[in-house]
């Protein structure tokens, strides 16, 4: 899962270390764009088999592209459209094994085969989403989902 050879332990333990690193990295920094940028870079550095890691921010009734690591991406996504828009409309994490089987999937990068999207909240209001794509079908499992939700909750403390 993680590229860095110094990480030992179970997948859950590796994620816990990553979440602690995120919290320490963002501690004391009030700028949201800086924090989102570092969070996407941290995830991109440590997650294997991903081709896009980033954020969309909820602005004026649509998601707008935020800091990310990867190829250029779709700039605006309406609520209810694609995996990201569905996460916003339903207010819950979307873990999609095969994006080509997802009704209304928005193909920003044709290489993406699976995706996980975690909604972000600020002051109990929707803030945006964490979006991670993989070129492999079925890349994300239950451990990824629960751990990335914890990652998102930690990030929210710094928004």
TrEMBL record:
One Gene Ontology term of the molecular function aspect: L-methionine-(R)-S-oxide reductase activity
PROSITE patterns, per database record: UPF0067
Domain (GAF): residue spans on this chain: 31-159
Pfam (any one): GAF
Record-annotated membrane-spanning stretches: none
Highest taxon listed in the record's lineage: Bacteria
One term under GO cellular component: cytosol
Annotated InterPro entries: FRMsr_CS, GAF, GAF-like_dom_sf, Phosphatase_reg/MetRdx
Residue ranges of coiled coil: none
Family note: Belongs to the free Met sulfoxide reductase family.
Protein name per the record: Protein YtsP
């Amino acid at each position: 899962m993680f590229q860095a050879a110094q990480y030992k332990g179970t997948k859950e333990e590796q994620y816990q270390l990553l979440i602690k690193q995120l919290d320490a990295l963002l501690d004391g920094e009030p700028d949201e764009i800086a924090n989102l940028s570092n969070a996407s870079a941290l995830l991109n550095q440590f997650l294997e088999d991903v081709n896009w890691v980033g954020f969309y921010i909820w602005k004026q009734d649509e998601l707008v592209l935020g800091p990310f690591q990867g190829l250029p991406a779709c700039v605006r996504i309406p609520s209810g459209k694609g995996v990201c828009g569905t996460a916003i409309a339903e207010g819950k994490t979307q873990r999609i094994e095969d994006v080509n089987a997802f009704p209304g999937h928005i193909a920003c990068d044709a290489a993406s085969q699976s995706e996980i999207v975690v909604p972000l909240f600020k002051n109990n209001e929707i803030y945006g989403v964490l979006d991670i794509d993989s070129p492999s079908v079925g890349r994300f499992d239950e451990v990824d989902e629960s751990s990335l939700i914890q990652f998102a909750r930690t990030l929210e403390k710094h928004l």
